[in-house]
């Protein structure tokens, strides 16, 4: 190989890559046009091949070190820059994307919420009218503890907070993902989960109310429930979005409808996960803590819910 001729032929590529890298290092990756970004990636691969050839042919240490420096700089900008862009995209989604998709899919979330509330009202009504109805939904051991011992059951969390928190989060995630996956049953399983969870909270709420334990019970529920319940409603909305795509694709072909509504459902799921992690942490460490006054727990729950509503209502200007 004629080394001088090879260097002369390849050197313009090295100089061009160096110029692009200097621009990025000075003004950032966003300063490049789309065509220049593609050119950067192509030049990086080309110069990396030149470096390998220079090492194989044992062409001067100075040139090898220069090409090594050039490829290292290019690698750093391409791959670390890509990771920075990914993190920026994630932050941008949670800043504006999630509130936007919540607003666009609010009707589906509202349906899930309504089914939950209907279940809660039905359980409340029948539990007062017919005490035996409660036993169909609430475990007998829990009923006995509240009625006979006049105690709530959440004290068992104290002392095992990390284990309880992780267990609670996993359980809530499984319920939420079940509600999302229920969309493939044309929403029937999603509707069942919403109604059943409503029946459960309604029956338990009636049980503690009948035994004068409502105030401490709701003090326990409010802090984590302010995030946990909306997350479950978001999951229900996701399931109904998938059901809509299957049952009523509208102007889309069913496959295209699944892609469109499925994309919105996935975005809601991205919102559900951090909400449930935070709620599980609160439920494990804050909600059952006997040293925190009940009034503070009520204020914390209401504050979190107000912040969530404000966050989901924001619009990008």
Automatic annotation (TrEMBL):
It comes from the Bacteria. The chain crosses the membrane at residues 105-126, 152-174, 186-209, 229-247, 268-289, 295-313. Pfam families: SpoIIM. The keyword Transmembrane applies. Keywords: Membrane, Transmembrane, Transmembrane helix. The keyword Acyltransferase does not apply. InterPro entries: SpoIIM-like. This is Stage II sporulation protein M. It comes from Nostoc punctiforme (strain ATCC 29133 / PCC 73102).
């Amino acid at each position: 190989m004629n080394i001088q001729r090879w260097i002369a032929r390849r050197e313009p590529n090295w100089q061009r890559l160096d110029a692009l890298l200097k621009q990025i290092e000075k003004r950032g990756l966003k300063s490049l046009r789309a065509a220049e970004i593609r050119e950067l990636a192509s030049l990086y691969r080309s110069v990396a091949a030149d470096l390998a050839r220079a090492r194989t042919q044992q062409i001067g240490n100075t040139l090898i070190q220069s090409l090594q420096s050039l490829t290292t700089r290019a690698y750093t900008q391409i791959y670390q820059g890509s990771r920075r862009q990914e993190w920026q995209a994630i932050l941008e989604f949670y800043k504006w994307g999630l509130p936007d998709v919540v607003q666009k899919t609010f009707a589906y979330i509202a349906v899930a919420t309504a089914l939950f509330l209907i279940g809660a009202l039905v359980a409340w009504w029948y539990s007062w009218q017919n005490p035996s109805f409660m036993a169909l939904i609430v475990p007998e051991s829990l009923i006995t503890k509240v009625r006979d011992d006049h105690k709530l059951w959440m004290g068992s969390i104290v002392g095992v907070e990390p284990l309880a928190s992780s267990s609670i989060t996993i359980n809530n995630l499984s319920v939420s993902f079940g509600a999302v996956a229920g969309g493939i049953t044309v929403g029937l399983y999603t509707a069942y989960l919403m109604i059943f969870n409503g029946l459960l909270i309604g029956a338990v709420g009636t049980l503690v109310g009948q035994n004068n334990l409502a105030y401490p019970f709701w003090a326990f529920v409010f802090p984590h429930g302010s995030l946990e319940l909306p997350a479950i409603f978001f999951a229900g909305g996701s399931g109904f979005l998938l059901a809509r795509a299957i049952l009523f694709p509208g102007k889309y072909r069913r496959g295209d409808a699944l892609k469109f509504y499925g994309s919105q459902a996935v975005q809601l799921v991205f919102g559900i996960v951090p909400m449930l992690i935070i709620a599980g942490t609160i439920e494990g460490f804050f909600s059952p803590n006997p040293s925190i006054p009940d009034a503070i727990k009520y204020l914390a729950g209401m504050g979190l819910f107000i912040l969530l509503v404000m966050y989901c209502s924001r619009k990008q200007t």
